[in-house]
Amino acid sequence: MTPAFDAVIDELKRLPGLGRRSAERIALHLLVEKRSQLKSLQESLSAAARTLNACPICGNLAEEGGPCPICLDPTRDASQICIVEQISDLTAVERSAAWRGRYHVLNGKLSPMKGIGPAELNLASLAKRLQDGSISEIVLALPNDIEGQATCHYIQEEIVGTQSISLSRIGFGLPSGGGVTYADSITLRSAIESRRNYS
Ligand SMILES: [Zn+2]
């Protein structure tokens, strides 16, 4: 096409889940067919980039430096925490409507191979949340792979330790690979309902 158009395609192709054809469709849509949408997309992206932050309590998306809507919601059970690897897992669990507690987003999983240790994950704030004894249940909604297992084990041994907190792991009928994010709501709901004691 043209150098400027090609540069846009190259950027779009770097986004998760977009191949060349989808990138081209989006670029043509925004730059040729629906120019007005380009402006609103630019504005909403800049506004979000300015205001969004990680929730200081759980690591979910939040705004203006404050906690996220779930941590602020008084109807959510503050004594229950569902631990997920990433924010997209949290939104998948929310869509399933099977969880009325709160969350903790680790932003990854332990992986010595990739140099990801406990310090690289959002674990210190989890330990802090457990300090006042107000948490009675933790559900591990982490991937069923070696790294997910290592992360569960670490949380059990190093974070929960001897505290009297019910620790369970979600049942797995989940697809391997995509895990929580790509599970449909019905599968995810039954995985949460059939969570098993983690020991
Ligand atoms: Zn939060």
In short:
The protein is an alpha/beta fold. Helix content is 43%, strand content 15%.
Please, could you describe this protein's structure?
- With 199 residues, the protein is of the alpha/beta class.
- It has two domains: 50 residues, Helicase, Ruva Protein, domain 3, CATH 1.10.8; 137 residues, Dna Topoisomerase Vi A Subunit, Chain: A, domain 2 (3-Layer(aba) Sandwich).
- The protein is built from eight helices and seven strands, in the order H-H-H-E-E-H-E-H-E-H-E-H-E-H-E.
- The strands form two sheets. A five-stranded mixed β-sheet has the order 4-3-5-6-7. It has a two-stranded antiparallel sheet with strand order 1-2.
- Strand 1 and strand 2 form a beta hairpin.
- The longest helix is centred in the N-terminal third of the chain and has 17 residues.
- The termini are far apart.
- The site of zinc ion has 8 residues, from helix 4.
